[in-house]
Design goal:
Low-confidence stretches: none
Shape: globular
Oligomer: single chain
Number of strands: 9
Number of helices: 5
Radius of gyration: 16 Å
Structural class: alpha/beta
Helix content: 25-40%
């Protein structure tokens, strides 16, 4: 099996899990929690053992706090949590490598909310990687990319399917791109020095080699 086939199967598994949840549950708030759990499990399998994955809040020494973050990837080798109960954590900005906001269907309304949440994290420490992950979108993918680049705080947007049929192929291997970036930024020999840059990462083509769209000046 080639790597593209492997990532396709991983992405298909994530989408099947989403469909099962949609068939079983009706409350959108509960469905949202399960969406986050599905992505959290996929993320947990992608990062190095130097990191843990949870959900919670980033809290600075001066009392400034982020909004609740759907997924936090944080360094467990050099930093402890400020609070931990199961998957729920409160962590310092210095310990955080990446924050991810998860949306079922990404649209222009909830994209703005996700950007605001990541912008609050950016104000605590600019080096944190900040991603948005969606199961599908009803907005053209290029528009999502442009809006995220304009935000000057989002470092990646990954959507697994689109209602726009002409762009299905463009976003068909988003899982591969997401996993590639996560593996690169949490590699033990580089995770302390390779902070998030001033661009929107769309793919990774080797260790410490990212390609994307620069933030607007």
């Amino acid at each position: 099996m080639g790597m593209e086939q492997y990532y396709r199967k991983v992405q298909d598994k994530v989408m099947v899990q989403r469909d099962v949840i949609n068939a079983l549950l009706k409350d959108p708030r509960i469905i949202g929690d399960y969406y986050e759990a599905i992505v959290r499990d996929a993320v947990r399998e992608s990062v190095s053992s130097s990191f843990a994955v949870g959900r919670g809040v980033v809290l600075a020494d001066d009392g400034r706090a982020s909004r609740e973050c759907d997924i936090i990837i944080y360094n467990t080798v050099e930093y402890g949590t400020l609070f931990s109960s199961g998957d729920i954590v409160v962590v310092s900005p210095e310990s955080v490598r990446c924050v991810i906001q998860v949306k079922g269907t990404v649209n222009q309304d909830n994209l703005g909310d996700a950007i605001q949440s990541l912008d609050a994290v950016d104000k605590l420490r600019t080096g944190i990687w900040k991603f948005i992950v969606g199961f599908k979108t009803n907005v053209e993918y290029q528009t999502l990319v442009e809006l995220c680049a304009q935000s000057r705080s989002v470092n990646g947007i990954f959507v697994f399917s689109s209602i726009c049929k002409h762009e299905q192929e463009d976003i068909s291997l988003q899982m591969q791109k997401l996993v590639g970036v996560l593996k690169s930024i949490t590699a033990p020999e580089m995770y302390q020095t390779n902070d998030a840059g001033k661009y929107l990462t769309l793919e990774v083509s080797g260790r410490n080699s990212f390609h994307g769209v620069p933030f607007s000046e």
